[in-house]
Fold:
Amino acid sequence: MRTVIITGGSRGIGAAAVRKFAAAGDRVYFLYATSEEAAHQLAAATGALPIRCDVSEEAQVEAAFSQIPDVDVLINNAGISEYGLIQDTDPAKFRRVMDVNVTGTYLCIRAVLPFMLKKHAGVILNTASMWGLVGASCEAAYSASKAAVIGLTKALAKELGPSGIRVNAVAPGVIETDMLKSFTASDMEDLRQETPLQRLGRPEDVADAFWYLASENASFLTGEILNLSGGFVV
Ligand code: NAD
Structure:
């Protein structure tokens, strides 16, 4: 039985990943920032174990991982977005996006390495975005943070490969979750039409990609950024 840790697991893509791995019999721990009720409902439904933790806070990450006895797979999914012109993005907002999306990913990786290095095995999966590949207007902070996640993924694939640890990322396109709740129905329809596969992504599409990347079928795959955008970005 693998031990799988999923950050930002209480809703959206993270919750779909919790359901997928738990249903397959993995021992799943998930970190959540604030959604206590949603976290406990998901735990009750899946048997996964919730731990409250803001991934951008070093002390909270250390405390969370000290409760976990072992790790085979880490899925860094927690993330926030920020929309607006760059001149309206104040330094505090810019830093917060980098703190959660980049530093949070780094802190969780740092926390699992002692387990993985000891076993000479492990899988680390990061969540980038198609905007980290090509950049999005009015999402400069978010695009920069996801480009950093891509750089981190590639660098660590090289650094940790000799230690038996694979590091990959998924770069989703438009996925229907709360992250896009400020978009109107008409915005979402435009995005659907812009997607060559003519549908929006589902959280389960990303969970399926995590599942494959974590599996033995992907045992020769590392440093890969899986473009999961329905053709939006090719
Ligand atoms: P979401 O807003 O529904 O979920 C984000 C999750 O991250 C939530 O569970 C939230 O509580 C958690 N989180 C936020 N800040 C946190 C913190 N400081 N510490 C711990 N947890 C924190 O959105 P989602 O679409 O499910 O996003 C999941 C990931 O997928 C994010 O990294 C996001 O950037 C990425 N992504 C989403 C899309 C999309 O279109 N929805 C596209 C590309 C990438």
Observations:
- The two ends are 36 Å apart (CA to CA).
- The chain has a mean pLDDT of 97.
- Residues 116 and 159 are 13 Å apart (CA to CA).
- The helical segments are 12-23, 36-46, 58-65, 91-119, 130-134, 140-160, 185-194, 203-214.
